[in-house]
């Protein structure tokens, strides 16, 4: 028996069984994402201090975060609250990437995000 174990087989098909953008939603998010691992009330407090608008939302059984456009130092960014748990966070991130996100900054304290990191110049 020279057949490789199933776990070692390579699938060259680049398409997923269910693509992240299968719903063909009309979203086009900004390429830079602030992926906030914080409670919703912290995001709400942060949004009081920056120009923003809701671009869309992601709907699951247990979590429905809004996806925001925020503007900091004249640059428009995407902001989204990350869900609890790696599988859910990865699913949402995959979906955000399918609709335009290319660079991801994760943060655990949204109010310190703009004070401590000058990430908007690169």
General form = elongated
Q: Which residues form runs of ≥5 with pLDDT under 50?
A: 115-122
Sheet with most strands? 5 strands, mixed
Percentage of residues in helical conformation = 10-25%
Protein structure class: alpha/beta
The number of helical elements comes to 3
Q: Tell me the strand percentage band.
A: 15-25%
**Order of neighbouring strands in the sheet with most strands:** 2-3-4-1-5
Alpha carbon gap, first and last residue: 54 Å
| SS elements, strand count | 5
SSE arrangement, N to C: EHEEEHEH
Residue-averaged pLDDT: 83
Q: How much is the radius of gyration in Å?
A: 17 Å
Task: Itemize the secondary structure elements and their pairings.
Blueprint lengths: L31 E5 L3 H8 L4 E6 L8 E7 L2 E7 L4 H13 L4 E5 L2 H7 L6
Parallel strand pairs: 1-4, 1-5
Antiparallel strand pairs: 2-3, 3-4
Structure notes:
By secondary structure, this protein is α/β, with parallel strands linked by helices. The protein has helices at residues 40-47, 86-98, 110-116, and strands at residues 32-36, 52-57, 66-72, 75-81, 103-107. It has a five-stranded mixed beta sheet with strand order 2-3-4-1-5, with helices on one face. The longest helix has 13 residues, at 86-98. The chain starts with 31 loop residues before the first strand and ends in a 6-residue tail after the last helix. The relative contact order is 0.23. Mean pLDDT is 83; it is low at 115-122.
């Amino acid at each position: 028996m020279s057949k490789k174990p199933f776990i070692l087989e390579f699938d060259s098909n680049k398409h997923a069984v269910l693509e992240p953008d299968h719903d063909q939603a009309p979203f086009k998010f900004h390429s830079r994402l602030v992926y906030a691992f914080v409670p919703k009330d912290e995001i709400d407090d942060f949004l009081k201090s920056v120009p923003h608008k809701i671009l869309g939302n992601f709907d699951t059984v247990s979590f429905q975060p809004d996806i925001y456009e925020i503007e900091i130092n004249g640059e428009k960014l995407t902001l989204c609250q990350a869900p609890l748990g790696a599988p859910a966070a990865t699913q949402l991130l995959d979906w955000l990437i399918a609709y335009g996100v290319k660079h991801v900054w994760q943060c655990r304290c949204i109010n310190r995000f703009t004070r401590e990191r000058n990430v908007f110049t690169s």
